[in-house]
Amino acid sequence: MKQLENKLVLITGGASGIGKIMTRLMLERKAKVIIWDINQANIDAVIAEFSSKGTIIGYNVDVSNWEQVEATAATIKKDIGMVDVLINNAGIVVGKYFSEHSIQDITRTIDINANAPMIVTSVFLKDMMEKNAGHICNIASSAGLISNPKMSVYAASKWSVVGWSDSLRLEMKQMKKAVKVTTIMPYYINTGMFDGVRSKIPILEPEATALTIVRAIEKDKKAITIPGYIYRLTRTGQAIMSLNFFDWFAGSLLGVYKTMEHFTGRK
Fold it and tell me: What integer pLDDT is reported at residue 1 of this predicted model?
């Protein structure tokens, strides 16, 4: 099992939701943690709450701003050192029919959810490759496995993350680099981001989800869904069922296609 003590861990979106919980869990494992977040008040509150647990540093970063990402990464490398574990966790959701999306809704969602993980990874990956060590954990979604009404752009962004993340894993393997890549595909998590969602499949609790992710990093898991049966359920169904039958299975039997009908999201 990977030892995280004294490792430098960077978590995007680290000042709220499962990002905040993962920050605490990493500190409890005696890692040094850097959090990037767009909300300075949340950054300050997390640092104040967790500073007694170990080394924690926060930066106000909009991960969709690649110039800011590059500049902050350069500061970290100069002042702190090489990032050992990168967790791409920041994300947003709009929760509307595609026809109701503005151009800003579309571009902002893709910039934060799909482009940012690639750009943030790109500024730290070469150092990991040169050292022949490191770990990149990408928080995708079960929406990267199955389509869903009122999640079209969000699903597109997460399908992107799933495909890119696993391709990166294969590239590191093909290049014989010991840089590990883990793709995480969780169901809805009860953090406020998906307030209003109603689901027959149980909505995930943040604490248990964050712990599962940290343990996946410790165990060098390649890819996991949370809960585990989501992968088998979707992939097996998509493989053996006709599209019409799968729509009935996922939409009517499991109720997945109606989960976003009462979505309000985090205000």
Answer: 85
State residue 70's pLDDT score: 98
Q: Per-residue pLDDT for 111 more than 90?
A: yes
Residue among 64, 77, 75 nearest 37 (CA): 64
Q: Domain boundaries in the chain?
A: 8-258
Q: Is the peptide bond before 227 cis (omega within 30 degrees of 0)?
A: yes
C-alpha to C-alpha distance for 207 and 163, rounded to whole angstroms: 27
The mean pLDDT value of the chain amounts to 97
Look up 257 and say whether it is catalytic.
no
CA neighbours closer than 13 Å in the CB half-sphere of residue 162: 20
CA 247 vs CA 4, 77, 165, 168, 244: distances in Å: 43, 48, 27, 31, 5
pLDDT value for 266: 83
The string over 154-180, giving b where at least 16 C-beta atoms fall within 10 Å of a residue's C-beta and e elsewhere, is bbbbbbbbbebbbebbeebeeeebebb
Q: What local confidence, expressed as pLDDT, does residue 97 receive? A: 98
Catalytic residue among 59, 154, 188, 257: 154
Tell me, which fold does domain 8-258 have in CATH?
Rossmann fold (3.40.50)
Tell whether pTM > 0.90.
yes
Mean pLDDT over residues 229-248, rounded?
95
